[in-house]
Every structure is written in C-alpha cells, then in structure tokens.
Write a structure and sequence with these properties.
The chain is 39% helix and 12% strand. The protein has 14 helices and ten strands. Strand 7 and strand 8 form a beta hairpin. The longest helix has 15 residues. The protein is globular and about 55 Å long. 34% of the residues are buried. About 6% of the residues have low confidence.
Length: 338
Amino acid sequence: MAQPLRDADELTTDEAKAMMRRLREFGPIVFVFSGGDCFKRPDIVELVEYGANLGMRMGITPATTSLATKELLQQLKDVGLTRLAISLDGSNADIHDEFRRVKGSFDHGLRILREAQEVGLSTQVNTVIRKANIDDMDAMTELMTTLGVVFWEVFFLVPMGRAKADDVASAEDFESVFHQLYDLSKTAPFDIKATAAPQYSRVVMQRKRAEVRAGADEDVHEVMTRGMHYSQSDGIGRARNVNDGDGFIFISHTGDVMPSGFLPIKCGNIRDADIIEIYRNAPVFQELRDRTLLKGKCGLCGYRDACGGSRARAYAMTGDHLAEEPFCAHEPPQVRAH
C-alpha cells in the first residue's frame, strides 16, 4: 500500500548489504532497487556502489518525482549503476498521470530519462498494459522510438493492489499486443521484454516457426532458444523463460521474500531465514518451478515449459498460484478436443 513516509521497520544498511552479499553467491545476478520510491533511502548511493563492487549488475526504478535530480543520477552513474528504468504508462500526461494518480509524473519521467542520458546512464522504459491504454499502443510505440532508450519492458497488468480485474485487458487484446511487440522487435532500436506475460514467448516461437516454414534462412533450433534461459539438463535442452519464483525473487523493504512483487505470497523473511534457502526450498517456490503441477489448460499446453502462464495473474484471479492463466488466448489441442 502506498504511503508518504518510509517504514520504520525497513531493512537497515547493514542488513541490506548482508542480503546482497548472500545473493551474490547465486552468480552474476541482476539486482534492481524499486519501490515505492527507492530514492527516499538516504543510503541508496552507498548500496548501489556496494552491489556494483560485489560484481552485480545494478538497476534502479525510481518514482518519477523531483527527488530524482540530475546530481543524484550522476552520483549513481559514478558508483556503478548499470541501468535506470522509468515508468511511462501512456504516450501523454493525461493517460499516464491518470493511472499513476500524480499530476506531473509523466513530465518528471521524461525529464529523468533525458537527464540520465545526459550523465551517460543506460535507460529503459517500463509500461503497464491495461484496458485503459490498449488504444494508445501505436502512440506509445512511436514515443518509444524517440526516447533514446535501450530497453522497453512491457508489463501486462496483474489485478492486485488498486488494480481491479476489470482493469485488465482481454486475452485477445493481450494477444494482439504480443504480435505488435514482435513486429516492432524487428525494427526497433531497443530491446523488448514482456513481463507478467510469459505467453509472449509462445507468440515469438509461433511467429519464428512460421517464418522458417515460409523459407526464412534461420536454424529452427536457434529460433526456439534465442533470448531465453537455455538448459541441457534434460539431455535434449529446452527453452524456459523467467517466471514468478522461477529465476526471479522479490524482497520487500522489510525483508519479506515473495516469488515476485506481483505474487504476494510471503515465503519467509531474510531476518530469520537464509535467502538462498528460501528460494531453493520454500514449498511455494518449489511448486512454481515444477510446471508439471500446473492446472487447467496450462498443465496441458505444449508450451508449458517455455511459458507457464502468469502465476501472479492466476493467483490474483483465483487464489491458486498453480491455476491456469486466466488471460491467455491460446487453446491447446487437448483442450479443444474436449
């Protein structure tokens, strides 16, 4: 829940550093400070520098407010910040500010992007796709090509917090946006990622297969695995994307550990349990990584391993993190047969 002041129980600087040291044992991970507004922490520069010195790729997603000054952005660049991401949820202030409920947020976002680029930071834009801005996608796409960003992360709304089920676009609208993003990916001067929408990986695979069948000069095996985590552990290899609790972990400002910020099932707290133990052994995390447990059409789908459906949206709509993705237009043949 949004609140104006910092939580008195948030992790201390020393606790945050200890957590980062332990997380670094996973490997060269990407560590992102988000919020709320992480710039309300007076130690944010110190923590970014600490993580960078540990060898982690450090990202930050500040709120679009006056706290994000050019001087602070320069400090973060100097201590090793890898990427700064700004939320833009519409192509203009009316659409964005209405969603964020803060007048002036859109203009601050554009300013922060410009000033971050001026100090030499790599920048990205995060956009939440929902019913209210589906018709704004063409204008958003046009805006993206003018901003000088290297990455566009497109989030598909999960009905939690202030967001309601009626705010979510339809499965058919999602599908349309997936194809639009895929088409854009061929010409855009930036990379594109769909978040809380693992179905996009299915669309990419379907489109790539169709192109190969049409005579594209490309290897099918590479088509099936490009841009995804790739494992040979089963002897034949398989494409598998990051999903809630599966390649991703969320730690709140008070140390609660959840599969993602969109899947708010508390699985422990770093103050009384080891973060790596939670990720590896907490029952919910283990269930999320065993896609044979998925229910409904997700359990029958031939794209189960590559996709898995949004576990967060399934939980938000049904209370069951293993239920089928409720906003997916794909019908597996086994389902159609029934």
